[in-house]
Amino acid sequence: MNTAVDRSLLKSAFPFPGCNAAGALLPEVPADLERCTTVARYRQHQTIYFEGDSADAICQVVEGCVMLYKLLPDGRRQVVELLGQGDVFGFARGEERDCSAETLTDVRVRFIDRRSAERSCSFQRILARRMLIQFEAMHEHAVLLGRKSAMERVASFLLRLAPDTDQPVISLPMTRQEIADYLGLTIETVSRSFSELKRRGLIVLEKQDRVRITRFNAIEDLATAC
Amino acid sequence: MNTAVDRSLLKSAFPFPGCNAAGALLPEVPADLERCTTVARYRQHQTIYFEGDSADAICQVVEGCVMLYKLLPDGRRQVVELLGQGDVFGFARGEERDCSAETLTDVRVRFIDRRSAERSCSFQRILARRMLIQFEAMHEHAVLLGRKSAMERVASFLLRLAPDTDQPVISLPMTRQEIADYLGLTIETVSRSFSELKRRGLIVLEKQDRVRITRFNAIEDLATAC
DNA sequence: CGTCGATTTGACCTATCTCAATGAGAGTGG
DNA sequence: CCACTCTCATTGAGATAGGTCAAATCGACG
């Protein structure tokens, strides 16, 4: 099933559902862990686990998009990671999950028993390599949250989802509320930013959840170094 | 030199210089990597590397505090991680460092050759475990940047640095500018928040870089779930 | 066609930023 | 020991990006 190991080098921490679809590549799990592994299916907008749940299994996205978020006591929510094919999540320092995990699309998730995973050398290697990718994505996200304007955040977000210049149509797997919670904005500000981009002719909203980037360079300029 | 392995479980991603000083514990490197390892010293406010430098060695803080930051083209800066004893940094997805590393205090850094590290199973294990800790810190940081008010950010920051209720005096290893760049605020807002806390009697500024928390609970309330 | 949830738009408000001035502390040299 | 200077921090006054609240519009679905 898992032929090549370098699959772990695929770009990722990249939440767009179709982004890797072309190759339909399966993420890698070393043979010695195959038997400690389950794959489960989830529908869109289902919760995989909640913050505080006991963390006995490590998870990997086989297919689809997942978001990790944290809640403040008064209900404010921050999406802390967007995950796509191959990304790992659900490992924890202590015994509890430090944030909640919810699906953005229909998803297949592989669960790997935590103790077995800790024993498997090859899995540790894959895990560490994966985490690098997610580290960089989180650094970028911190810059976005700490230092970018609303417009810059939305533009950066679009670029993050735009597969390529020659693939300028994005199917947003997220509601405005989820986008807002990822970008540290309100739903109204996200909406106004989209409208402004539309007014300036940089994007076309083909459907509510379908964006065509018409002037890629202009979006790049707005994003201030994605 | 490295007797116990569980040292890697010590709390960390915790930037306060004196936080682990009591035990004077050295972070762990497996024996098989000892010879691929160098330890270097840096003075306060020295750059270890810049974003874009080639990433040929992984780094670990042996002693002191380090910050990782990214710059936007127009000079805006975001500090993306604060690191203390035992924390690892400088690994990269590609060939280049994704952010810059600068010392906050006098620092000792251990460099581990990247290729050797990738081959060492025990190091991968330590690395993965360390990264978990830093992951959680970064999630917390994203919540702070995306969803907390200025006051909440400053209160959370103080709690992060306060070793304990019975150790209420904090020596800030950072300038106001560095704090502002970590919290996603301006220097003025940080300063005003400190003044407000002082006015309300929750802290005393014994020196510019020395804060005594006088009403711990009140700070905790302000921080909104640290 | 009617209903319901999600999105967009408008009007207003406020937390934080910006710009500018003042103050405090550390180091230097007379 | 006392100016002098330099950097960093504080404070004030005014501007503004983005938040809040409320209303209008859209789109999917029965």
Can you tell me about this structure?
2 copies of one chain form a homodimer. In chain A, a hairpin with a 2-residue loop joins strand 10 (203-207) and strand 11 (210-213). Chain A has 2 domains: 6-146, Jelly Rolls; 149-223, Winged helix-like DNA-binding domain superfamily/Winged helix DNA-binding domain (Arc Repressor Mutant, subunit A, Orthogonal Bundle), CATH 1.10.10. In chain A, the strands form 3 sheets. The first copy, chain A, has a 4-stranded antiparallel β-sheet with strand order 1-8-3-6. Helices cover 33% and strands 24% of the residues of chain A. Chain A has helices at residues 114-119, 121-147, 150-161, 176-183, 187-199, 216-223, and strands at residues 37-42, 47-49, 57-63, 66-71, 77-83, 88-89, 100-103, 107-113, 169-171, 203-207, 210-213. The two termini of chain A are 35 Å apart. Chain A has 6 helices and 11 strands. In chain A, helix 3 (150-161) packs across helix 6 and helix 4 packs across helix 5 (187-199). Residues 1-10 and 17-25 of chain A have low confidence and may be disordered. Chain A has 226 residues and is of the alpha+beta class. The interface between A and B is large, with 42 and 42 residues.
**Biggest sheet features of chain A:** 4 strands, antiparallel
Regarding quaternary structure, what we see is: homodimer
Which chains make the largest contact?
A-B, 42 and 42 residues
The number of domains of chain A: 2
Using DSSP, what is the number of strands of chain A?
11
Secondary structure: helix percent of chain A: 25-40%
CATH topology of the largest domain in chain A: Jelly Rolls
What is the overall shape of chain A? elongated
CATH architecture of the largest domain in chain A: Sandwich
Helix and strand pattern of chain A = EEEEEEEEHHHEHHEEH
Structural class of chain A: alpha+beta
Supply Rg of chain A.
18 Å
| DSSP helical segment count of chain A | 6
Adjacency order of strands in the biggest sheet of chain A = 1-8-3-6
Low-confidence stretches of chain A: 1-10, 17-25
CATH class call of the largest domain in chain A:
Mainly Beta
InterPro entries (chains A, B): cNMP-bd_dom, cNMP-bd_dom_sf, Env_Response_Regulators, HTH_CRP, RmlC-like_jellyroll, Tscrpt_reg_HTH_Crp-type_CS, WH-like_DNA-bd_sf, WH_DNA-bd_sf
GO molecular function, one term (chains A, B): DNA-binding transcription factor activity
Pfam families (chains A, B): cNMP_binding, HTH_Crp_2
Protein name (chains A, B): Helix-turn-helix domain-containing protein
